[in-house]
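thread from #wetlab-drylab

HS: before we spend reagent money on co-crystallization trials with zinc ion, can we at least see a predicted complex? here's what I'd submit
DV: go for it
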Amino acid sequence: MTLVAKRREDYRAPEFTITDISLDFTLDPTATKVVSELQVKRQGNANAPLELDGEHMQLLEVAIDDLPFGDYQQTDSGLVLNNVPDAFTLRIVTQVNPSENKALEGLYLSNGVYCTQCEAEGFRRITYYLDRPDVLARFTVKITGDKASLPTMLANGNPIEQGSNTDGTHWILWQDPFPKPSYLFALVAGSFDQLTDTFVTQSGKSLALELFVDKGKRQRGEFALEALKRSMRWDEEVFGLEYDLDIYMIVAVDFFNMGAMENKGLNVFNSKFVLADQASATDEDFFNVESVIAHEYFHNWTGNRVTCRDWFQLSLKEGLTVFRDQQFSSDMSSPLSNRIKQVRVMREHQFAEDASAMSHPIRPDEVIEMNNFYTVTVYDKGAEVIRMMHTLLGADGFRAGMDEYFRRHDGQAVTCDDFVSAMQSATDIDLKHFSRWYSQSGTPRVEVKRAYDAASDKLTVTLTQQNLATADQSEKQDLYIPLQIEFLAADGQHVAPDSGMFRDNLVILDKPVTELTFTGKGSDITPVALGNFSAPVKLTSDLTPLEWLHTFRFANDAFSRWDAIQQLYNWCIEQYYQGSPQQVEKAIWQGLYEAVEASQDNPEILGECLVVPSFETLCQTRENIDVHALNEARQTFSHDLAEFMSDLLLVIYQTNQSDSYAYEPAQVSSRRCKNVVLTLLAELPLAETLITNQFSGSDNMSDTLGALKAAQQFDLVLFNNLMNEFEQRWRDDPLVLDKWFGLHATCDRSDILAQLTLLRQHPQFSQQNPNRVRAVIGSFAFYNTSGFHADDGSGYRFLTDYLLELDKTNPQVASRLVTPLTQWQHFAPSRQALMRQQLSRLLDDASLSKDLYEKVSKALAYGHDS
Ligand code: B3K
Ligand code: ZN
């Protein structure tokens, strides 16, 4: 198979545009008819044919200005209409089969609900169209469907008319006054429970809020509706942005490829990110619901009102909207835990992507399948790039830049450069050098080194940036890196360098080497670099273990204090991994003990500091990894840590019990701290009673799951007993059962593949449902280190067998799940060979989707053709 990549540089404005579209759907499970009427206008070359995108449907009729039209060719990817006038009405009738659509892209029917997903290029599975984000049209949508089974029929905008027919069907007409690209179109039809509310905007306009959930789940939707109101208020207060339609609708569906979708006025959500109550959802679930609700709502301005010119610009809306939802979450809960959570995503997943064959800049240059680029790089690194601008400009400057961005571009489809240039207008800092972050891929390395000259009593701190070649780019340039930094003297007091700071605690690294000097202050100065994770870089330094402890005691930046403990853990695990655990001397254990003891009344930081770095994080700073030795080093260290401070951990466990459950910041921190401690204690025999008591006494899902995770760590017999009880309680609730699936799939046991086979036969498992597939197969491939990386390659083979099946029905989900197999670069050569063997099996499949083809072929080419 050879597939041609599209290139960012080849962008050309469309020859035609569409100003208005009226769609008429007659819903039928296997033969839905779609009549589309387009107002088309030529805006380019006078002779150009009209080339419409379209696939996976039947074409029934084409007419121009009410006359049948025959001068067209149908191709694999669309329709080419020749000799068309400069302005005309185009009528196209198509037929689609929603029940057969298992890819969940375009219009599909599952569990009796009709639903669409059009971003990025799904609209072309509904009708022939200029399916690209720079064509903005006004949509009118009529839906006709069975009245009994589809009492609710929704589309974007406002309902303007409805009625009944004599044949048992009814119809409704929706109109969206805001011109929009086709990817923001949505249609939903089904039978739901509905929650309604109102919101009064800052300018006094009253809006209707409507949330649609599965029958019987109304109470589980209340939190999401409250979260929506908080998001609306926050965006008014922080960015001065108000909602623009009269009605805002959210629908929760069970079959959905990703988290949610920001369709104008009609968000469609994976029910996982809407439904939450004390009994069925963890604190983390509540957090995610609030953050995804906010994210989709914030898109109304950053994404919908101002959209992307082309898909290479995806980070324009995603990086910015992630940054906005992160700021919101941080205001709603603990800023420290939020920042740590974001950094974990960067270190565990984004750094891994940068190091892999899929490495790409936040604004990619080449794409075969756009769905493959909804990545942690575009989203999360994209948000880090926005955050750096926020750091450089300050909150007020950033707000001024945003105001200017909307003033210039409201109603347009624009580029990342347009965004930077609006930001430029609000600052004296030249952002030209900074903007390389958009075009350069890879994780920069920053090294901190000290040299002391006794004769002149001068300490020089050298900060070096290094940008290594990545799979996609061999040449690299220096970046503009804002590095937050503080300096500690031996007594814990802060000291300042002679000169060279950009601002208090901020230094700019804009060349390979930057030096800061300290004269007359002695040699004993500890630099604390990368405060608040001020740039998405990998930091190495010459700090000693005792200096990390010093940092924890005295640094001002809470993130740096947490990070110091993480670096220290990383160092300790390395000693175990190298076979010399005795290098972790008594003073270090004692220092860790004292650090924990001193933080006893601060569950927020304690709950984060007692988490040992994940296996995935440890991989990012190592090469040629012996998987099992590293995993074991991590586990043995955790065991020794728990043993050394068991008395202290028990006290912390006991003091962090709360009476009755509430989802509020103080309780969340305390519960998290308690459950993190329980996981550590699960290394020790004394944990059994704690685990069983917590499980049986729990009145909320966080504590129940905390007990199950600890049991999984503790012992298989206890684990299986508790898991059986859990299954009995939740057997009819697949969304909750996903937690159970995930725990089984991540269990460290020699018969894990047999277990996975059993899970696949479970009555609640369904290969059609992406949530189930992610819970079982995804948890295994991403997080079951011992099972996925079994020495005989059986884990890799299992995943491959599964993907070969799944790819036939849902390539998008298959392509997400292949990721761990493509990230072989950190491992020892023998293991790389086993992983590559399975990648070759995938590539040998002649009918492989282009989604998988793009990732697999890149992964195989990387490192072997250079
Ligand atoms: N914009 C959607 C993601 C669409 C993914 C298409 N494969 C959700 C979001 O980022 O808000
Ligand atoms: Zn988004």
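DV: Residues 295, 299, 318, 321 surround zinc ion (ligand 2) (CB under 6 Å).
HS: ok that's useful, forwarding to the group
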